[in-house]
Amino acid sequence: QLQASGGGLVQPGGSLRLSCAASGRTSSRWVSWFRQAPGKEREFVAATEWNGGHTYYDDSVEGRFTISRDRVENTAYLQVSNLKPADTAVYYCAQGSTIVSGIYQSRNYGYWGQGTLVTVSS
Predict the structure, then answer these.
(1) Is residue 22 within 8 Å of 2, Cβ to Cβ?
(2) How confident is the model over 16-34, as a mean pLDDT?
(3) What is the Cα–Cα distance from 35 to 61, expressed in whole angstroms?
(4) What is the Cα–Cα distance from 84 to 16, expressed in whole angstroms?
(5) Contacts of 107 (CB under 8 A, 6+ apart)
(6) What's the pLDDT band for 27 if we cut at 50, 70, 90?
């Protein structure tokens, strides 16, 4: 199971740290973050390997968001900074073991957290 937390209301330019706690030892290769804004499809945000550390980002968040993981705590994080109103969405964490080219598609993930809402507004 995955438990996402850390969302909230923040002003433009602000920051948050989202957490994704995994229950038990995970055998998945990837832990990733997706987001879904109202009326839009779920989209890829960032991914990292549980054991390898390689990271990938969508162009829209590159340089503003940082994904990391703590293997001992079995928790992944998404530091979101310099937030914009367009970042407003429900953020979901997910686990999967797809090949690298597949990390961008939500259908390749078998385990999902419940989502945490990030609202960017003045």
Answers:
(1) yes
(2) 91
(3) 12
(4) 12
(5) none
(6) confident
In the three-class reduction of DSSP (H, G, I as helix; E, B as strand; rest coil), residue 102 is classed as helix
Residue 75: beta bridge partners?
21, 70
Tell me the C-alpha distance between 106 and 48, whole Å. Answer: 15
In the block, residue with structure tokens 């969508």: 58
Return d(Cα 36, Cα 43) in angstroms, integer: 6
pLDDT, mean of residues 104-111: 95
115 burial type by CB count under 10 A (0-12 exposed, 13-18 middle, 19+ buried): middle
Six-digit token string for 15: 């920051």
